[in-house]
Amino acid sequence: MASASLYNYRYLWLICLTATLGGFLFGYDWVVVGGAKEFYEAHFGITGDLAKGWGTSSALIGCIVGALGCYALSDKLGRKRPLVVAGLLFTISAVGTALADSFFAYNAYRIVGGLGMGIALNLSPMYIAEMSPPKIRGMMVSVNQVTIMVGVLLAQVVNWRISLVDTAMPLDATPEVIARHWNGQTGWRWMFGAEAVPAVLFFALMFCVPESVRWLVKDGQFERARGILGRLEGEDRADAELADIRSTISAEETGQVKFKDLLERRLFKIVLLGVFLSFFQQWCGLNAIFYYAADIFKAAGYNLKAMMLNIVVIGTVMVVSSLITVFTVDRIGRKRLLVFGGGALCVCYLAITTCFRMGFLGLPVVLLTLACVAVYSLSLAPLLWVVLSEIFPNRIRGAAMSIAATAHWVGNFILTYTFPSLITAMGMANVFLLFAGVCLVGTLVVLRFLPETKGRTLEEIERRLEGE
Predict the structure, then answer these.
(1) Dihedral (CA of 110, 140, 327, 389) sign
(2) Which end of the chain, N or C, is less packed with Cβ atoms under 10 Å?
(3) Does residue 299 carry a pLDDT above 80?
(4) Exposed, middle or buried, 17 (CB in 10 Å: 0-12/13-18/19+)?
């Protein structure tokens, strides 16, 4: 791989920033429901724990299907065309959810958006990794995570500012009161509908970027791949880089990957590690905080207006922490940051458990929640996708990423759908104790099985993990 200094940075950043719009849309769609739930639940008269869980998690069904679709399509169609489709799905979902006239229609359009989320979160980091030089690959993929966090923050700010429009609604309004006010009738629709603007932009710009070089090689389109490599790192380096990529993809391995290929002993252990890391990131507990921040802050004693503002603060902390990761991931390394993240989250969750059991609510819970968000955004949030985009061999990367992404969304759905019921059955304190246990186990597995990948080409990582 050519030195990073030889790269055409202007072209590289154009490619990567366009792809990161998929991450931005994922972040917005992922979190907008957390601020809107108080209002659409009141509007549709949603009261039961399972119904509330379904309204929050229905998009994740689409995410699972989208990730599985990537398994079938990404190695056949490439990375670019599915991302174009994702932009269209985000647009349809934003408009449809905003205009939904029933809880059924609301969830149907959320599932459509989930399809886009599943595709974007799977393919955006993989596409960026396949186009970036090894010395800055961690930073470039982490930029995708920053845009996810920016999407999260924008969704929270939009929710907060729209909720303030309805000045007549009491701060301690019950669902029945909310349903009669502007926020319960119209405000939540604008929260979802605002996503249509960046969704259309992403859809249009994805037509302007090239296909992934490594996918083109895998598909046998060597001249197209060489042309893109020549523009990225110069004509004098294009042939050498093309030869290095081809060395990890034999002629019989081009084309569609078969499921049985993933069960080869050397490959299966890598896929299994990716699946575990995906579950670990989900069940470390932060997604429950993002989706149900309002419920957590309500349990800590805050009113509706204060809850919405606290949610915005969470998003701000996420963006700042993610920016720090961009500038440290290629210096400190992936493994160290993951171990730090898992261990620190375990400690924070134990402290939150203590606060709820001893009645230290209000500000202590908010500060500890923000500490969890900061640690997560520095480590597990961005680095899962950096690591997954690096550890899977070229010839199975599309299929393996789809399996890991599917595991990610299955874990997300199970957690999100059951969280209200978990709180009812276990209590808030014991739920956070459960998350602490998950973080401890995940940290030990990372220490034992995950190799460091910083500074290595994707081909070098492949040879190392396969024992060559």
Answers:
(1) positive
(2) C
(3) no
(4) middle
Helix (H, G, I), strand (E, B) or coil at 376: helix
State the DSSP H helix or E strand holding residue 179, giving kind and residue range, or none if neither: helix 175-180
Residue closest to 342 by CA, chosen among 402, 279, 419: 279
Instruction: Assess whether pLDDT exceeds 70 at residue 295.
Output: no
Q: Identify which of 62, 42, 41, 43 has the alpha carbon closest to the alpha carbon of residue 52.
A: 41
Contact residues for 45 (Cβ-Cβ < 8 A; gap 6+): 175, 179
Q: Which residue carries 């569609």 as its tokens?
A: 256
Give 217-239 pLDDT, tens digit per residue.
888 888 888 888 888 877 777 88
CA distance 126 to 122: 7
pLDDT of 89 > 90? The answer is yes
Nearest to 431 by CA among 414, 419, 444, 446: 419
CA triplet 351, 325, 3: central angle to 5 degrees? 155
Which secondary structure element, helix H or strand E, spans residue 107, and what is its range?
helix 103-131
Q: What was the pLDDT predicted at 437? A: 95
DSSP letters along 25-50, please? Answer: HHHHHHHHHHHHHHHHHHHHT--SHH
- 376 Cβ partners below 8 Å, 6+ apart? 284, 286, 318, 321, 341, 345
What would the pLDDT profile of 132-142 be if each residue is shown by its tens digit?
Answer: 777 777 778 77
Nearest to residue 25, comparing CAs of 157, 195, 206, 144? 195
- Give 21's contacts (C-beta < 8 A, 6+ positions apart): 87, 147, 198, 201, 202, 205, 206
Q: The whole model's pTM is what?
A: 0.70
Asked if 216 and 225 touch (Cβ cutoff 8 Å), the reply is yes
Residue with tokens 């230290």: 360
Cα separation, 455 vs 138, in Å, equals 9
- For the beta carbon of residue 234, count every other beta carbon within 10 angstroms: 14
Determine the residue type at 336: R
What are the chain's domains?
A: 4-465 (1.20.1250.20)
Distance CA 206, CA 80 (A): 7
What are 260-280's pLDDT values in tens digits? 666 777 778 888 888 999 889
CA angle 15, 235, 453 (to 5 degrees): 55
DSSP 8-state symbol, 285: S
